[in-house]
Amino acid sequence: MIEEKVFKDPVHKYIYVQDRTVWDLINTKEFQRLRRIRQLGTSFLTFHGAEHSRFSHSLGVYEITRKIISQFERNSYADWPEEERLLCLCAALLHDVGHGPFSHSIEKVFGTNHENWSCRIILGDTEVNQVLSRVSPTFAHDVAGVICKTYRKEIVTSLVSSQLDADRMDYLLRDAYFTGVNYGTFDLERILRVVRPYKGKIVVKESGMHAVEDYLMSRYQMYWQVYFHPVTRSAEILLGKVLECAKALFEDGYPFTFMPEPILHLFQGKLSLQDYFLLDESLMQTVLMYWSLEKDPVLADLSGRFLHRRLFKFSAVEEWDKELLTEFRDALEEAGFDADYYLELDFPSDQSYDVYRPDTGKEDKQPILLLDGQDKLTEISARSEIVKSISGIHMGQHRIYYPAELFERGGGKAVALQRKLFDA
Amino acid sequence: MIEEKVFKDPVHKYIYVQDRTVWDLINTKEFQRLRRIRQLGTSFLTFHGAEHSRFSHSLGVYEITRKIISQFERNSYADWPEEERLLCLCAALLHDVGHGPFSHSIEKVFGTNHENWSCRIILGDTEVNQVLSRVSPTFAHDVAGVICKTYRKEIVTSLVSSQLDADRMDYLLRDAYFTGVNYGTFDLERILRVVRPYKGKIVVKESGMHAVEDYLMSRYQMYWQVYFHPVTRSAEILLGKVLECAKALFEDGYPFTFMPEPILHLFQGKLSLQDYFLLDESLMQTVLMYWSLEKDPVLADLSGRFLHRRLFKFSAVEEWDKELLTEFRDALEEAGFDADYYLELDFPSDQSYDVYRPDTGKEDKQPILLLDGQDKLTEISARSEIVKSISGIHMGQHRIYYPAELFERGGGKAVALQRKLFDA
Amino acid sequence: MIEEKVFKDPVHKYIYVQDRTVWDLINTKEFQRLRRIRQLGTSFLTFHGAEHSRFSHSLGVYEITRKIISQFERNSYADWPEEERLLCLCAALLHDVGHGPFSHSIEKVFGTNHENWSCRIILGDTEVNQVLSRVSPTFAHDVAGVICKTYRKEIVTSLVSSQLDADRMDYLLRDAYFTGVNYGTFDLERILRVVRPYKGKIVVKESGMHAVEDYLMSRYQMYWQVYFHPVTRSAEILLGKVLECAKALFEDGYPFTFMPEPILHLFQGKLSLQDYFLLDESLMQTVLMYWSLEKDPVLADLSGRFLHRRLFKFSAVEEWDKELLTEFRDALEEAGFDADYYLELDFPSDQSYDVYRPDTGKEDKQPILLLDGQDKLTEISARSEIVKSISGIHMGQHRIYYPAELFERGGGKAVALQRKLFDA
Amino acid sequence: MIEEKVFKDPVHKYIYVQDRTVWDLINTKEFQRLRRIRQLGTSFLTFHGAEHSRFSHSLGVYEITRKIISQFERNSYADWPEEERLLCLCAALLHDVGHGPFSHSIEKVFGTNHENWSCRIILGDTEVNQVLSRVSPTFAHDVAGVICKTYRKEIVTSLVSSQLDADRMDYLLRDAYFTGVNYGTFDLERILRVVRPYKGKIVVKESGMHAVEDYLMSRYQMYWQVYFHPVTRSAEILLGKVLECAKALFEDGYPFTFMPEPILHLFQGKLSLQDYFLLDESLMQTVLMYWSLEKDPVLADLSGRFLHRRLFKFSAVEEWDKELLTEFRDALEEAGFDADYYLELDFPSDQSYDVYRPDTGKEDKQPILLLDGQDKLTEISARSEIVKSISGIHMGQHRIYYPAELFERGGGKAVALQRKLFDA
What we know:
The first copy, chain A, is α+β, with helices and mostly antiparallel strands. Chain A has helices at about 20-25, 30, 55-75, 85-95, 105-110, 115-125, 125-135, 140-145, 155-160, 165-180, 190-195, 210-225, 230-250, 260-270, 275-280, 280-290, 295-305, 320-335, 340, 385-390, 405-410, 410-420; strands spanning about 5-10, 15, 195-200, 200-205, 315, 345, 370, 375-380, 400.
């Protein structure tokens, strides 16, 4: 334990650090790097306040975890393994340490995975690993185990990752704060008071059901109002196209004027830890700026669109309207656009749709369990009509994304297509 | 006029755009570039929430100006020149368009000036200039005139820049919101209701005096709690040292491994508009990262310190304690540090100390005038005891900044110095 | 029009009065009386912040209506009858002017009705009537017509009373603010921007659907977390018992030591306007205090329980568990309690359950209609999965209320009953 | 200790009760009575949200005290007498238990004193005394001692009552919240973190100086914007006139139609504990309503003015303008008003002017002491320029209050007076 340090935080007011290990982890260069990765990727192009970093979110997850554990200790719950405190705090702090720039787009195009990178950073030759190893020889391994959900005590992993975990609680509040929407607010203090350890699980006291309902309703709204916002989707699609285009050029041996090592190794599929450490959003934006000046017209155009926020437009379409898709391709070709890089069908339901579902087998997240006065556990959707309703909703509009100029230039096919889309 | 567009904004809830010219300006690449410049420069290293951009601040200044003008129009004030509406809105939106990355440090080291750049962007071959020129042939020139305070109507310039202008009102609220401190809050809605045009000036209805007092008290607190925070000063000093060191190396013909054109031209003192456009904080951070890998040990070390947030420590000192300064230099040299790059005396009072002062001749900002029921104008500090008090305060601690290792390594001179400083 | 007046309001920041008629109405003694009637009746016994008055709520409803109309006028909507502005504002301000103290309980026991009283006050010999009559000879009649929903233009009545009216929007925000719960917050500014007049109705632009969803979710949560809170129900039940007991005693000729005229006339079923004006919550609390000192032991005991917040306890029960009810009656009699006054079954679903229902015939409130780009109207639950879910929920626990002492005194029947209830 | 109970509170989110004694005190009828006494007396006539009760404030003072002590215990400060915890909590909770309705006015006219009453309630035959006596035979006496500042340990009394006590911290935040002004906000959490026990005093860690400055600036603003608001003063003056008039009538043997015992005994100067318990704001408002129907024209008129909020107008005047005062008296007599009851000169500086003063001998409140790294204590105004400035300000306008009709009726003397006042 050290003299308490505090960080001013807009969401939690203050973040309290009471352990030297936590303090030292925050000061590693791997953790400081999270300042250069935005929490919400491309969302800042939709909500201009959303510039907050994964650094601030990681501190927030740590703080919520700290508060939960502190409540467990104050109440001396028998089912809480007190010796796991520091492990939980470190795993909470580090769970996102492997996130790269614009993760969604890069992971999709290059097949990287941020959880793997978190574990590589924790276990590799890093300052983070040095700090953890000072606790005990196996501590870094345990922290990685909690993040990858292989750690032997389920109660520890589910504190860090479950349907009601510190991660989600922080990001809903934080993303609502920085975007300025007021959908993400719920009564955190009340939820912190009603969770408790019980037979190796984190459960919720029955009387807290309504607070959890409210949390799940916030989550529902945030997904549809913020995370799946069509303009954000547009930015992500565009960034994906840029990366695909650059990758294809690279594979064709195109001579890039600026090719820093981390990007080269990303293209070659052989990113080292040292590369990964340099791969932040500043570098990505610098690369995009150079690409916007490249000779290849498609790469230059797409990169410029992203930088200057000239995003694709979108129209709602019926699911799998194959004919319409063909008409779009034809109109684009007529207008001089390569349809491979200037057209995309998007189905939010293909995304990891993060509405609470109690029953999906593939879901590796603990469902939310209510503990009643008779020590009986019930999954929340069996008790709450509103949760049952939300978890049963399958929704999401299918949209087609294309450059705004398609209809402005007004070739014959585009005109016909436009009439079909809007004059119906 | 166009169909109203809105931006979600955490500070003003919504920002309303009702003019095509304003909408088009926002969509220029020069204005979009402000997304890549932080509003508070290095403050994010002190307050991790302070990642907000000059883009969001510029929208905020526009919105406050829009609200003030809208109130003027609703009340049909005779002294308000209605034909200046669009000019005011555009000048409010664009007043910061010339800001570069980490302006304070770069302007100090390289002698650039963001107001000049704003005017170059407005008058040069830019998308901004094209949009403005569509209004009228002289419109761009007028906008530049308002920003440089040469425009012929004082009422227009003082709306955009005075002791109670839209600029300050937005940044106090915005910086308080994103840092999470609660010093910057004041009753904006009330102030907007009590300002009015009067004989070519913007004045405040007497009954609004207390709201203005509160605004000035907020400003006072924000300066000392946020803008002059010693940790932020430390980051700025460090960044200044990095830039000085790189500039000296450049002048010595040092072979940099990465030297993008905007940086080259910055060093050569011949930045073009096109260079300036590419010079954002992403590029600066990428450059710092490359520099942290350079062979020159001082440049590499200083750059790494900034990137990984290993800032200089500081100690309060008596003003101009020449002897102590010499002892610091000696101890640093003994410990192997080049004192030119690892030591700095800092006096906040040397900074542009932005506490309200009614009377300073060099101050080009309109003082705040109260309008009473008898149409008499009185400068506020003649009426308000609290404003008089604040404006009379001369304060600010003198601090010396140096690397934390100085005392950790513990050479003999450092030990003696440490004893002198802390055991007194 | 007069010089704008403002009221400081915690919910809307400021309330703006711009019409002499509105200003004069606020200053009538009938409207000032609303300061002495709490907005949430007995809820202050559950949420100690909930002391806010119907005066503040009425100003809030007025302010929201003013903002909606102002938006209609700014946009010059053809379907908005501009001449109805003042009528809407006055009806909004006065819609609750007939509310008595603790309306729910008193209306239930004595069969009074606050809407009728609103109209009596508006049409009777009152200051309110004088102010309205200065507008035009028929104006008071029109205002009463809007409140009683007989006014000829549906668009006017539905602005004041519908599923998405200024009344509900204000009370959700206000009750959330004063109780301190954060369930009632929704994006008022956005909703105000998406409502519009259309063919004699108030409709919602399709793009505002999610904001309306959020409003309906808030409403759902507020009903279950605040309005139907079991402790508040307990206080209301207790107050009902007090009133029933006093009424029965009165009918038996009991000699009350303190019987002010308004109470006497309430008992006699012949309340005059002048009586009603004196009948506020101060008088009711004073009467309760005198009753707590009466010789009749039941009246004194029940009144004291209410005053000193010694509310009935409650237990969840199966619907219509007749046997249990009998056991309770027996145990109460054994313990010396008159079961008529010390026992109550409560079914929130018997209450006017104010969750959004699009289709109920008895519902006299306009459903919420979405207006799409093709000028087509769709009832919201046909478009929104979440609204469909909420509107289909039938819930509410059945509870039995009884004095806490029943089990503390511990007669044999009580012990048996207690075992049955809690040890199952 | 009991199972933790919580109250939902808008200011502190939740109030936590962890001791049976505290829980039992809250449930006494003497403490419940505080629900019927407004925290801000007549301020609700200026700020309609200000209906909050002394009940909620008392809980808030308790909660802040609990948090301070809990921080002391967490840090195991040697200078904190841990055995005094419950005493501090009870004194904090009960410090206002003796407040009567509209204390300022009643205390002034009848010479009662709420601190004396608090002690009478704590020491007398009350439920509060019974609860306290269950702790130990001397506990009630100790609690009374802390409230009357005679308790032997200064650290205990100064926690409950000093220049930076839980009382002030709660009321500034609470009054700001309920009135809706934003002057009263300061960083409570930070202040709680920097106070500590030191050699029998509560002191502030030097690094917390700016947070304390902000608290004192809030206090300054709240006094001038809220507590001494001229409209609130007007209401208090009017209420004082009502009471003086009724008292004079009583002394003359006037036959009141309604004279409840507590009022009778108040007039006779022999209030018993039982009377005092019945004397709440409901009773006062009921009495005022009856008085507004009395035959005595002055009493009826003044009472009606208060009830219907027809307050006196005011004009700023020079200090002690004796001539003007005479002119007012003459004009009032001419217009048929008894100047004794319809005229008042008000000097806020005569009020207990609660701006921080470090040095006044008559001040029985501990000044604020800063503790530096060398364990040296310094009074804050010796360190903070802004505190020095505030504490040196002597301000306050002198105002004359009179009925609005004086100038409306327009007798000759009134016309002359009006011209003198407003046309100068």
